Amino acid sequence: MKLVEALEALKHNAAIESPVLQVDLACGFTPLHFLTFLNAHLRAAFPGHKVQIGTGLYGDLPGTLARIEREKSSIVVAVVEWEDLDPRLGVRRLGGWRPGQLAGIVQSARDQASRLGDSLERIAQSGGVIVSAPTLPLPPFAFTPGWQSSSFENELREVVAEMMVRLSKSAGIRVVSSQRLDRISAPAERWDVKSALNTGFPYHLGHADQLAGIIARLAAAAPPKKGLITDLDDTLWMGILGEAGVDGVAWDLDHHAQKHGLYQQMLASLSEAGILIAAASKNNPALVEEAFQANRPVLARERIFPLEAGWGPKSEAVSRILRAWNIGADSVVFVDDSPLDLAEVKAVHPEMNCLLFPRDDDRAAYQLLENLRDLFGKTSLSEEDAIRMESLRTSHTVLDAARAHGYTPDDFLRDAEGKLTVTASKTPLDPRALELINKTNQFNLNGRRITEASWRQYVDDRDVFVLLASYQDKFGPLGKIAVMAGRREGKRISVDHWVMSCRAFSRRIEHACLLYVFRKLEVEEALFDFAPTARNGPLQDFFAELGGGAPGAAFSLTAQRLSEKCPPVHLRVEELPDE
Amino acid sequence: MNDLEARLARCFAAAFPGIDPSVITSASLETEEAWDSVAAVTLVTLIEEEFGVQMDLEALEHLSSFSSILNYLSGLPSIR
């Protein structure tokens, strides 16, 4: 983005009633054009929001952070440069670069990094924090020639590395990736010494743009994709199984097929991080199973569910996988080496991200791995990530078996020994609640996404209740799968957010949640801030079932109506005490 | 308005968001309330970005109107 484009973008204001995204920028330099780029990128990342950015005093990063601590800002962006650790590491102060001063510079940088880390961790307790480590080159302050790295330079880099290790482990703090920034903003072209000396703004425009862009992405924290469907032949492994046989497929260096092994390694990693992995292959099913058993790929057979092998169109196999996963095509990535199959799947599922596996291009294959990490990357992992695939597989196995034995849904639910565990604790606030609100589509009251800062602000309201429910039955746990949040107003509650994971459908957990909230809060009516979306059909059906017709914009339900319409709920409900 | 004037006018429109397009060519430090130090730095940066030039700091002191900047740019070998 050019500066003129960023300024142009700032001329278009959000509607007056739009929610405000309050951001505080803490940096030691004059923010000038960086502020413009950050504003423009944040507006693009948060459409429909009014972005307001506060700044602090020039040259006083610690002071700005101290003010933000007192005022409890929402999103805080801290851009640290070397001169914030010691002013002698900049070019606008003349404190000296004499050899006798160098150890002192390192020590003062170490002390300052510690203080900044403390301050940022305190701020993160009440709002999201994004931190950028120094992006500019160190000045020629040490006595070694430029091609020799001095101990002082290395100690300073150690100071920063320790600070970033600490901050990246802190809840609520996200650190800008130096590696990604290096790729999109060449380190040698970041520093604008003329501008630094004359205006106090040290960045070339291109660097300011790229750094602001990464920070906006971190602030927006787009939800990752949920599932990946992969082809097998010439994708998961090199070779055509039906032609080469079980022993003829490969994914290692010896067979010049290492990119397939790396791809498997990536999929195994994604699977362990809670991403659903399935396969759709035009193949003989028995031969595929034999290949997995005989060859033990890096991606174990157990990590793939479902595995669709057959001779029908790929799009039909993909449709069956989507039904088994119960998630939308827009949350899924499909990878295949055949442009024809990709086009066929894309025609049927236009929302799906269809990616070519470049079987003849090592460089492009490596880029695919990086692309997959970007599409599926998560800020942190939860307990639910570890059990997602297994719970899904178990549910299907059990339901299939139940249907085969002629069980009715009631028979099945009665025998499942389901238990719903509900917590209303807001301290500490479980990050899973916001994650569910922002990633759930089908059973979602209104489809509204909410920023971490807005969520914290909302939950801090003493009248707001948040119920987080987890489920398990004799077949295993599903983890934390439902959230309801709203306000209690006398004998009525207003529900602002209500979501439930698609893995938890068909267990009457939604009925149990309603019964619980009426009883627990001793209310007679619930008013839901409902809005139909293109995706929340299951919730609309549920409301229609209870209300006797299509729900309106503010769906209302009384305790009496619920008791009349509610089918038998075979769940035991337990409450977790507040911590 | 020739191409040079049009490109410079675009820079002025970006640096002074509220400016009436019809008065851009007559804009100066005296006529534009928003022409403060930050706006001046932004304007210079926009001109450098648009025309791919580095502006001479000494010359900047005399560049306080649309017409003076237009004359300055017209005299640069890389622009002519």
Please, could you describe this protein's structure?
The complex is a heterodimer of chains A (579) and B (80). Chain A is globular, with a radius of gyration of 27 Å. The longest helix of chain A is centred in the first third of the chain and has 23 residues, at 102-124. In chain A, helix 2 (32-45) runs parallel beside helix 9 (205-220), helix 5 packs parallel to helix 6 and helix 13 (314-325) crosses helix 14. Chain A has helices spanning 3-9, 32-45, 61-71, 82-85, 102-124, 151-168, 178-184, 193-199, 205-220, 241-244, 258-272, 285-295, 314-325, 339-348, 362-376, 383-404, 409-416, 431-439, 452-460, 509-521, 537-547, 559-565, and strands at 20-27, 50-55, 75-79, 128-132, 173-175, 227-230, 276-282, 307-310, 332-336, 353-356, 418-423, 443-444, 464-473, 476-489, 492-500, 525-529, 554-558, 571-576. Chain A has 22 helices and 18 strands. Chain A folds into 3 domains: 3-220, Rossmann fold, CATH 3.40.50; 227-376, Rossmann fold; 400-576, Aminopeptidase (3-Layer(aba) Sandwich), CATH 3.40.630. Chain B has helices spanning 3-15, 37-51, 57-60, 66-74. In chain B, helix 1 (3-15) packs antiparallel against helix 2 and helix 1 (3-15) crosses helix 4 (66-74). The radius of gyration of chain B is 11 Å and the shape is globular. The mean pLDDT of chain B is 89. The chains are: A alpha/beta (579), B mainly alpha (80).
